UniProtKB/TrEMBL annotation:
Organism, as annotated: Luteibacter yeojuensis
Keyword Electron transport: no
Keyword Membrane belongs to the record: yes
Protein's UniProt name: DUF58 domain-containing protein
Annotated coiled-coil segments of the chain: none
Ranges for region Disordered: 190-222
Comp. bias intervals (Basic and acidic residues): 199-222
Signal sequence, start to end: none
Transmembrane feature ranges: 37-60, 66-89
Keywords per UniProt: Membrane, Transmembrane, Transmembrane helix
Length: 318
């Protein structure tokens, strides 16, 4: 940004914070009211005003009462549309922000709740970056606007400034207000592409081998030497060959003990990327895992809650 433009922005931030919305982010909920809603005529509205002025001059010049009445009616409709446009935004409430999960470098899905206590709000527009979203807010209800934001780094991602505006009903006036919610979204670290697996204890050499069980795990084709008592005769009658009840069940997998200090020769970001990959692999394979960090420890567990706790701790590492 050129120095002159920077000085202009700094002046606007000091003198016109409500107009420019360059001031610091504000907490939710955000309610739009008359002191933060602005309205100007559109290009079509300026052209329409010029047309009304020409019609007014012509009607007065030729003393044409019908033309004068038409001009006054069109002017009254234009002024009324300005009030209607203002009422589209007046009283809107931005109540909540929700975000999905994403890793650094991916796009994160964000949902914004917009509600109205009275009246249905038509043709409300929301500008997020270079994209525009058009929606309707029902009377006494709320609607959800969904959009995606690009991410580059792990950690908290601040929401950008957003502009809510409308040209309803006739397109003669543009009414707008700036939004800057103070609700950052969390971005998980990017896992490394390839690397070694974590160290597993070798105390049990039979770990991972199939073991005989009491309940059938699956059905398979008959192999010479299988005991006759394991043949599923009823199911084999409806099959082209013999089926055997497989009573072998895989042994439970070893729990992974993920330790920050157990990785040597790596910088902090490389350690975070490797731990993120290990956590993803453990979750996909159904393993249980624990995570030890310099400032915290997560005991052996599994599931979505445990996964999100561990990934959040990695994302917020300094």
């Amino acid at each position: 940004m050129p120095p002159r433009a920077q000085r202009l922005v700094a002046w606007a931030e000091r003198r016109l914070p409500s107009l420019t919305r360059f001031r610091r982010p504000e907490p939710l909920p955000i309610q739009l009211h008359r002191r933060r809603i602005y309205i100007v005529p559109t290009g079509f509205g300026i052209g329409f005003s010029v047309l009304l002025a020409v019609m007014l001059v012509g009607a007065l010049n030729y003393a044409n009462n019908a033309a004068l009445m038409l001009t006054c009616l069109l002017g009254a409709a234009a002024v009324g549309s300005m009030l209607v446009a203002f009422r589209v935004l007046n009283g809107l409430t931005i109540g909540g922000v929700r975000a999905g999960t994403a890793r650094a470098g991916e796009t994160i899905h964000v949902s914004l709740d917009v509600g109205a206590s009275q009246r249905e709000r038509m043709a409300v527009r929301l500008d997020v970056g270079l994209r525009e979203f058009v929606f309707v807010v029902p009377a006494g209800g709320a609607t959800t606007v969904e959009f995606e934001l690009p991410t580059e780094f792990r950690g908290w991602l601040a929401l950008p400034r957003m502009r809510v505006h409308s040209r309803w009903p006739l397109g003669l006036f543009r009414v707008w207000s700036w939004l800057h919610p103070d609700r950052p979204v969390l971005v998980y670290p990017r896992p490394e592409a390839l690397g070694p697996k974590p160290f597993e204890p070798r105390g049990d050499t039979d770990r991972g081998r199939p073991r005989p069980g009491d309940e059938p795990a699956a059905l398979r084709e008959y192999r010479p030497g299988d005991p006759r008592r394991q043949i599923a005769w009823k199911l084999s009658a409806r099959h082209h060959g013999l089926l055997v009840k497989d009573l072998e069940q895989p042994a439970p997998q070893e729990d992974w003990r993920l330790d920050w200090d157990g990785m040597h020769g790596l910088d902090d970001e490389s350690r975070i990327a490797r731990l993120a990959r290990w956590i993803d692999e453990a979750r996909e394979s159904g393993r249980r895992w624990s995570l030890r960090l310099p400032d915290g420890y997560f005991d052996v567990a599994q599931g979505d809650e445990h996964y999100h706790r561990c990934m959040t701790a990695l994302a917020l590492r300094p």
